[in-house]
Structures are given as structure tokens and as C-alpha cells.
Design brief:
The chain has eight helices and no strands. The chain has helices at residues 2-43, 52-71, 82-92, 94-117, 126-149, 156-184, 194-216, 230-241. The longest helix is centred in the N-terminal third of the chain and has 42 residues, at 2-43. The protein starts with a helix and ends with a helix.
């Protein structure tokens, strides 16, 4: 009888201890999985972190690039006199002002695409950070390539190709940065939305417009007209994307 009473008393205690042991074991396994995932993230280039710092940094660099564009604009000096003299000066530098507007428009589009797409990032990968830095390098080079394009050097093909290649590389680096975010799984489920697809379509169209103008520049000085084909290229890409 004593043994039976002891079994009845010990039974619930043993069950409780078994449950507690199982619970602790489960927590330990979950912690091990989380730690393993963190180590795997580090091996892939860094565990996912908040993208806000990269976004703010990119905004600042883009703002500096646009400011440098404006600082390079030619202004009348003391040698220019009267209204007619100023108007003549502005006409003589119309190419510089036009190049400024094109570069400003291009950088503005890059900035809008960046803020539209990076809003879906829930973290960052090492590859995306590196590609984003290369994208920023291409952005800050635009004031230089813009000035080169409108300089008085007699090398139109080289000047034009360097400028257009700068634009192509900026688009390419950004696409690679976003593609790395996708591969790393740090995008929200909205990544598959139509808005993202449409935004990437415009980026691709802009890259193709500048890319097409490079071989055209080898045969004519009107290669910049290819940039006006951007809406047509985007429409063609949209038709190809339809199922």
C-alpha cells in the first residue's frame, strides 16, 4: 500500500518535471536555430539590419550631387555688359544649361526609384550595400561627366560615351543592388506588387535609352535624341512583360 501511495504521489511530479524538461529542450533548440541563422547571415555578408541608415546616407549623397551640378553652371562675369550681353552669354552656354537639366532630371529619377523600391526592404545584405555604394559613386560622378560632355574639348565621341556610360552604370548598379535584396530574402511580400515591377521597368528603359545612344554617337552628333525615346522604350518593355 505504501508503494502504491508513493507511486500516486510521485507520478504527477515526474510528469511535471518531464514537461518542464521538454519545454526547456524546445527553447534550446529554437535558440540554436536562431543562432545558426544569424551565423549563416553573417557568412552571407552580414545579418539583416535596418535600411534607414543606408537610405538617409543615399539621400544626402544625391543632394550633394545635385548641388554640385548647379555649382558648375556658367554665370556672366564682369566682362559681360548690358542686357544684350547677358542674353548673348546665356545663348552661348545653352548646351551647358541643357546638360544640367538632363543630369538633374536623371538624378531625380534615380532618387525617386531608390525611395520607391527601398521602402520594401526589411533589412540589408552585404551585397546590396556594396552595389548601392557603387550606385552612389556613379551618381557623384555625374557632375564631372556632365561638365566633360559640354567642355570645349574636340572629342565628341569620347565625351558623349563617357557621359552615357556613367548613366548606364548607375542604372545597372541599382538593379544589382535590388536584385541582391531579393536573393537575400529581406524584402516584404509587397515586392511582387505591380508598382515595383513598373518602377524597375522605368529603370530598365532609362538604361536602354542611354545604352542605345552610345553606338549612335559614333556616327552622328545627334545621339542625345535617343534619350527622348525613353517613353517609347518603356511602352515596348511593358508590352513584352504582358502574359
Amino acid at each position: 500500500m505504501a508503494d502504491t501511495r508513493a507511486q500516486h504521489i510521485a507520478g504527477p511530479q515526474e510528469d511535471t518535471e518531464t514537461a518542464e524538461t521538454a519545454e526547456l529542450t524546445g527553447k534550446a533548440e529554437e535558440a540554436g536555430k536562431a543562432e545558426g541563422a544569424g551565423e549563416a547571415g553573417e557568412r552571407r555578408g552580414g545579418r539583416p539590419v535596418s535600411p534607414e541608415r543606408l537610405i538617409y546616407f543615399s539621400d544626402a549623397v544625391v543632394a550633394i550631387a545635385i548641388t554640385l551640378l548647379a555649382l558648375e553652371l556658367p554665370v556672366p562675369t564682369g566682362e559681360v555688359h548690358g542686357n544684350s550681353g547677358v542674353l548673348h552669354f546665356l545663348r552661348d552656354h545653352l548646351a551647358e544649361y541643357t546638360a544640367f537639366l538632363v543630369s538633374f532630371w536623371t538624378i531625380a529619377i534615380h532618387w525617386m526609384i531608390h525611395q520607391r523600391l527601398f521602402r520594401y526592404a526589411t533589412g540589408l545584405s552585404g551585397g546590396a550595400i556594396r552595389w548601392n555604394l557603387l550606385w552612389l559613386l556613379a551618381i557623384v560622378l555625374m557632375p564631372f561627366t556632365t561638365k566633360l560632355l559640354t567642355s570645349e574639348a574636340d572629342a565628341y565621341q569620347v565625351q558623349f560615351i563617357v557621359y552615357a556610360a556613367n548613366q548606364v552604370l548607375a542604372c545597372l548598379f541599382f538593379r544589382l543592388a535590388f536584385a541582391d535584396l531579393r536573393r537575400s530574402g529581406v524584402l516584404s511580400t509587397a515586392d511582387s506588387s505591380e508598382a515595383v515591377s513598373d518602377t524597375l521597368g522605368w529603370l530598365t528603359a532609362m538604361m536602354l535609352a542611354f545604352l542605345i545612344s552610345i553606338p549612335v554617337a559614333l556616327v552622328t552628333h545627334w545621339a542625345s535624341l535617343c534619350w527622348a525615346l525613353l517613353p517609347a522604350i518603356r511602352a515596348g518593355l511593358r508590352r513584352l512583360q504582358r502574359p
